[in-house]
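2024-03-11 09:14:02 DEBUG pipeline.ingest accepted 1 chain
2024-03-11 09:14:02 DEBUG pipeline.ingest length=338
2024-03-11 09:14:03 DEBUG pipeline.predict start
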Amino acid sequence: MRGEPELRPHRVAVLALDGALPFELGIAHRIFGRPKDARGRHLYEVVTCSIRPPGPVQTDADFAIDVANGPEALATADTVIIPASYELGPVFEEGVLTDELAAALAHIRPGTRLASICTGVYVLAAAGRLDGRPATTHWADAERFQRLFPRVQVDADVLFIDDGDVLTSAGVAAGIDLCLHMVRRDHGTAIANDVARRTVVPPHRDGGQAQYIHRPVPDPQQASTTTARAWALGRLHEPIQLRDMAEQEAMSVRTFTRRFREEVGISPGQWLTQQRVERARYLLESTDLSVDQVARDAGFGTAQSMRQHLQAALGVTPTSYRRTFRAGEADSQVTTRT
């Protein structure tokens, strides 16, 4: 009898640079260290490495961290994540890599997925990995970044950008969103939502959501839109009009729309579509419901409508999306490394 195929976790290498922000440096470990398959085996292996031989790396806080891996670890990675640093030197000032950093990055194999959190994007840009491609960074840095790297298509308004093999994010919490997005892309909504639940963060914030929200925490003296959102989530399968949501908060449509955008960062219509796409993804991954039934349960009404929305959001049809994750289950969630 043939034994069960060996699980080879997807290896994530986190590059710790001098001046690293401890919080952002730890995001990848927190998110990718959680996902497991049905047998409780880790789906990812996370290693931290330096551009120098193993040893201390100074953070932007009053302590250093002892990094056990040198740059050679980058050669074994399936994904490389570059968190923010406040001491990038020529990378930040002139847009060029130091010899030491260039030598470290040379270890990365072709085809490795690359991701940055906040100012880590400067390293990717200086290495030429973003020329002619869309990217984002913290909104406060975006204008300067664009001047330094004019060939990069900078979008300062979004939380993160997935451009296939290169992903970039804004700062801090957006780094969590980006890592959850990669887990969702690799292993589906159910596993990503479980990680989010254990980490006590929102399970999904779309990459196109605005970085800066005028009122991220509602003024206690003013009504918020949380009741309307909870009401809508309980009946996504039903037609929901803007006036129906506004009525839940006893607001006019105009006031509700303004408050909603201030608190959530997108319009009520965009938010509803996002929630329905997420519902459809979950049902396609976890049930045997027909595409028509998934479309009805997610609130799209027809399979054609759902197909259009999934194609716009994910670039795939419902059938292709389901096939991808069913194939992953058949392979016992195995990720191979070449």
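2024-03-11 09:14:41 DEBUG pipeline.report The beta strands are 10-15, 44-49, 55-58, 64-67, 79-82, 113-117, 134-135, 153-154, 160-162, 166-169.
2024-03-11 09:14:41 DEBUG pipeline.predict end
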